[in-house]
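For the sake of clarity, the format in which proteins appear in this thesis is described at this point. The record quoted next illustrates the convention:

___
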Amino acid sequence: MRSFRTKLAAAVFMGLAATALATSTATAETADPPTARITEIGGLGNLNGFCRAAGWDYSKPLDPNDAFSWVCVREATGEVAYIDLDNACVWHHPAYPDAWAGTTNPGDAFSLRCYIG
C-alpha cells in the first residue's frame, strides 16, 4: 500500500503535468507562426583555403565521426586550432554575413552545411 506522501506526490505530479499539457496546447494554438525561415546556402568545401587564409597549412577533422571536430593545422609543428565553423561559413559565402554552420549528420565530419535564417 502506498503511503500518503507517495500518493500526494503522484497527485501533484499529475496535476502539474496536466497543467503543462494544457498550457502548451493553448500556446501552440494561439502562437504566431515563425517568420524566419532557415535556408541552406551551401557547404564548407574549402576549409583548407579558409585555414590558409588565416596563416595555417591545411584543415582536417580530428574525428571523422564528429562534424564539429575540424581544426587548422601547422604542418611544421603539428599545432592545431579548432575552426570557428560559423566564421568559415561567412568566409565561404561572403554575401551572407549572418551565415552559421550546421550539419545534416553530427556523426559525419563531412556533413557540414551553411545556413541563414
